[in-house]
What we know:
Structural class: alpha+beta
Mean pLDDT: 87
Largest sheet: 6 strands, antiparallel
Number of helices: 12
Order of helices and strands: HHEEEEHHHHHHHHEEEEEEHEEEHEEE
Shape: globular
Distance between the termini: 34 Å
Oligomer: single chain
Helix content: 25-40%
Low-confidence stretches: none
Strand content: 25-35%
Amino acid sequence: MLTIAQITALAPDQASEAAARKLLKPSLWSNLGANDKGLWGECQGSSARKYQVLIDHVDMAYKCSCPSRKFPCKHALALLFLQVNSPDKFDSKPPSWFEEWQTKRNSKKQAVKEPNTAVSTDPESSAKQAKRIASRLKKMRKGALELDLWMCDQIRDGIADLPNRPSSFWKEIGARMVDAQAPGLTRRLEDLASLLYTGPDWASKILAGFGRIKLLLMALERYAQLSELQQADILVALGVSQNKEAVANGEQLTDTWVVAGVITEVNAGLTERRVWLLGQRSQRAALILDFAFGGRAFEQIFVTGTCFKATLAFFPSNAPLRAVVSETMGGITAATGLPMTESYTKNLQRATSVMAANPFTWRLPMAFKGLKLVQIGADWGLIDEDNKLLSSQLVESKVWDLAAMSGGHGMAMFGEWQNGHWLPLTAYCHSWLDLVAAKG
């Protein structure tokens, strides 16, 4: 059972928590129940309709029939509060609608746990899949030739004028990559465009970015000569969606996983959520990557600073990082520290090993120890124990929170490393501090 503090941490905002507390009247609820699988109940809404609220407290998954786009909604939060405050109000016999939800969830989890042999044993299905991939590769190669020529033009003409180019300059070539069914190249171009305003060394970053794209285009040209895992990494880098059922054939790892950071980004109505997990025993990092369109909520939520024991299934890769939760063993608890913290030098050594196995890795998780705030002119930065200055992006409003939490002492911090920049997501020094919010 979660504590009041942990339930409060689950709330998407203070308004949701306040609204949930207003629903803690037993008269508003009916069919309350709980067992070892989860919680359920029906809450009276503003109209005559009752909302069905379901909670899987092992996987920390929620479902409510209300129209709210917040997740978990106020009804789910209220149900959790009620279990703590009035456990005697909960029956143990689940209704049919709760059992149906559990059956659907178990079917999805079983599909992840069991090897997917249907595609490999069905010659017709395998042939169709191979034909689709071959057709898409042909289109992507045409787009790659166009992009290669475009980059050569920029380098030949000189990149000094790139900051003066209109946004349409980058969007046009990006749109052509979408037409070539290689949206991954579009995202990399958008990332390069954002580097134009990151300081005086922007030119070297642009050239390095061109180099990474060139390497990807060369790998695409030699696709047939590479191993299956290398081919999988190339397809991901080019933007080919990964089938979650494919993880059944990949590596599975059981550990106690700390939720080190959660970040959501919204682009053209598509919400991308990245959840970074760090294994306490294995010292392995994992990325749970989910997408939702049109403001839909994610069924399973993750709270920074909590941990849970689970088996993760990793997608096939030469350097496995992305994973899904295959099976959980017990509920969530508060994490008492940040695993895998290293110095700047050790983090770069680890990143080098990953990039050597998969040079197309977009973002890398990095956990630092002993970081201290320093002021450089009007800006703030972070230095490690070796006085190495990190290239970071601190949210100004969080600087004073960090200063108050650390009291001038070293902190453990986690974030994403990309293109020579480190984006801090969380800090830990006796307590946890989130440093980012959803970005649109």
